[in-house]
């Protein structure tokens, strides 16, 4: 393999993994928009959904049933999370209780997963494609599974963008984020929009889990928390609250990680990625696409 | 149209409204006059449902509404233009008007949504010219026109305006008040709160004077004008009313 092919392959792999980080960052954004809450339970949601789907598969259910069932349960958990651990705290805007409550729900789910499925790593079967399926583009062998992840993550983000910017419900979501009380006097059911945002975010967590689990090959109760940290980094790197930021932050992080892994050492992947993150944030504290509200004064 | 009996609102240990009773006639403009902190905004928020009162009743068209959520009151025809030029500043002028319309109108009415928004652009051409601009970048006067247009798009029967003249140039204030007069002619009942009593008196049919959460004067415009000229009224503004 030539050095160019090697570099391109690393970049491609980085883009695929980065697309999943973007999807996670998107999930963070949606709840951040409506409630200004960063849901630290997002990672365990990613894990829990893939564990559920795996468990349905192992019980003989086909993919076509297992995935929607997993999504349904995770959406329900998103609803419960908002109702019982976020909404009561929103009455006190200065309270930082959401950090504890979202993290608490996450840790609870992690413990629950350990209890149900055990703490050991479980093999997650490849989805649609086999691990050995390759597609050849410009002479580079690309894993079909990776390509699927990239395409699906990009398509989902595109759909989300269209919903948020082009539909009245998306505009309502942004309205609630900007001023929930004013949104209420405009007839928008602010509380319902907030709940909905947690349900959509949970669904995105579920999708991210299903996409990334076959790439990792195995899943453990901790896997969601680890990957969530990277999604959070992507979100901060791109500028929390920004859709473009979530996309580019994720892709950038993925590529940096894989290049470091390929040229330096795989054990340095995360360390160097974080170092670069710190440097970028020192130069651009709001993130690359940090949202700044334009306001005439 | 609207009747309030013995309304009390407390913010923790602070009594913002101390047993207010008012009666608003249909199709009229009622002014609520009072200094900063007199309870005007609290009263309007209690009517629109943003604040649930601790005590007292609010009857709208003879139905008690004091425990109904905001969205329910919006459906019944109550529109609230809040203090401080509240807008969705990070969205375009057009999107603000869409949001002002969509969630407060029936399915039947939504068919004519764009036509009704176009009417707003015809009424205020400046909003039409700037329809793709972010609302936060408009001037103060243009923002106020947009806010009132958003309120009107819901076809309200009762319009609550909280200090609509605050921070606006006199020429814009004239424009806003002229528009309120037009709305009155269309049969909309209006309650407008103002610190600047003289302004409100220009269009109001009736008025209440509020001081530290209590009503200290009420009457028609002539009565309020005479009150304004007296020491009593100026005392209200300095917080030393002896009523």
UniProtKB/TrEMBL annotation, chain A:
GO process annotations (BP): amino acid transport
Domain of life: Bacteria
Sequence intervals crossing the membrane: 6-25, 37-57, 63-84, 96-117, 137-164, 193-217
NADP among keywords: no
Subcellular location: Cell membrane
Alphabetical list of InterPro entries matching this protein: ABC_transp_permease, BCAA_transport_permease
Pfam families assigned to the protein according to its UniProt record, in alphabetical order: BPD_transp_2
Membrane topology reported for the UniProt record: Multi-pass membrane protein
Similarity-based family: Belongs to the binding-protein-dependent transport system permease family. LivHM subfamily.
Protein name: Branched-chain amino acid ABC transporter permease
Organism: Neobacillus vireti LMG 21834
UniProtKB/TrEMBL annotation, chain B:
Molecular function terms from GO: ATP binding; ATP hydrolysis activity; branched-chain amino acid transmembrane transporter activity
Organism: Neobacillus vireti LMG 21834
Keyword Amino-acid biosynthesis included in the entry's annotation: no
Biological process according to GO: L-amino acid transport
Membership in a protein family: Belongs to the ABC transporter superfamily.
InterPro entries hit by this protein: AAA+_ATPase, ABC_transporter-like_ATP-bd, ABC_transporter-like_CS, BCAA_Transport_ATP-bd_LivF, P-loop_NTPase
Keyword list, A-Z: Amino-acid transport, ATP-binding, Nucleotide-binding, Transport
Nucleotide-binding recorded as keyword: yes
SMART domains linked to this entry: AAA
Listed Pfam families: ABC_tran
The protein's name: ABC transporter-like protein
Domain ABC transporter: residue ranges: 2-237
């Amino acid at each position: 393999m030539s050095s160019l092919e090697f570099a391109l392959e690393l970049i491609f792999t980085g883009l695929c993994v980065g697309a999943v980080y973007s999807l996670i960052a998107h999930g963070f954004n949606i709840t951040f928009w409506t409630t200004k809450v960063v849901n630290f339970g997002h990672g365990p949601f990613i894990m829990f959904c893939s564990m559920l789907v795996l468990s349905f598969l192992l019980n003989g259910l086909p993919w076509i049933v297992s995935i929607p069932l997993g999504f349904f349960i995770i959406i329900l958990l998103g609803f419960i999370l908002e109702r019982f651990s976020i909404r009561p705290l929103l009455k006190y805007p200065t309270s930082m209780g959401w950090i504890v409550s979202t993290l608490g729900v996450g840790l609870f789910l992690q413990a629950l997963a350990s209890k149900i499925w055990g703490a050991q790593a479980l093999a997650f079967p490849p989805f649609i494609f086999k691990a050995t399926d390759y597609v050849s583009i410009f002479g580079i062998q690309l894993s079909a599974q990776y390509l699927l992840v990239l395409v699906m993550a990009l398509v989902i983000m595109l759909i989300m963008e269209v919903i948020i910017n082009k539909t009245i419900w998306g505009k309502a979501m942004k309205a609630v984020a900007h001023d929930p009380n004013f949104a209420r006097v405009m007839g928008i059911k602010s509380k319902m929009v907030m709940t909905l945002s947690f349900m959509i975010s949970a669904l995105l967590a579920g999708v991210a889990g299903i996409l990334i689990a076959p790439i990792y090959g195995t899943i453990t109760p901790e896997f969601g928390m680890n990957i969530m940290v990277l999604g959070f980094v992507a979100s901060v790197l791109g500028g929390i609250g920004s859709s473009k930021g979530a996309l580019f932050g994720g892709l950038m992080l993925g590529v940096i990680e894989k290049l470091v892994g390929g040229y330096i050492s795989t054990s340095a992947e995360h360390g160097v990625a974080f170092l670069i993150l710190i440097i970028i944030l020192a130069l651009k504290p709001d993130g690359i696409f940090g949202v700044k509200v334009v306001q005439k004064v | 149209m609207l009747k309030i009996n013995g309304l009390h609102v407390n913010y923790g240990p602070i009594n913002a409204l101390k047993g207010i009773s008012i009666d608003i006639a249909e199709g009229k403009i009622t002014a609520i006059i009072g200094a900063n902190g007199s309870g005007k905004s609290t009263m309007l928020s209690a009517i629109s449902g943003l604040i649930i009162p601790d005590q007292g009743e609010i009857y709208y068209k003879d139905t008690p509404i004091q425990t109904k959520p905001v969205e329910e009151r919006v459906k019944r025809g109550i529109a609230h233009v809040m203090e401080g030029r509240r807008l969705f500043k990070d969205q375009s002028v057009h999107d603000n008007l869409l949001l002002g319309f969509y969630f407060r109108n029936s399915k039947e009415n939504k068919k004519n949504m764009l036509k009704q928004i176009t009417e707003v652009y015809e009424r205020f051409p400046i909003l039409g010219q700037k329809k793709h601009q972010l609302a936060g970048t408009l001037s103060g006067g243009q923002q106020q026109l947009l806010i009132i247009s958003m309120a009107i798009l819901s076809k309200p029967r009762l319009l609550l305006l909280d200090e609509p003249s605050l921070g606006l140039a006199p020429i814009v204030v004239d424009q806003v008040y002229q528009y309120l007069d037009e709305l009155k002619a269309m049969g909309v009942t209006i309650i407008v709160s103002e610190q600047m009593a003289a302004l409100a008196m220009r269009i109001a049919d009736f008025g209440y004077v509020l001081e530290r959460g209590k009503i200290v004067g009420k009457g028609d415009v002539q009565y309020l004008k005479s009150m304004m000229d007296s020491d009593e009224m100026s005392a209200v503004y300095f917080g030393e009313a002896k009523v």
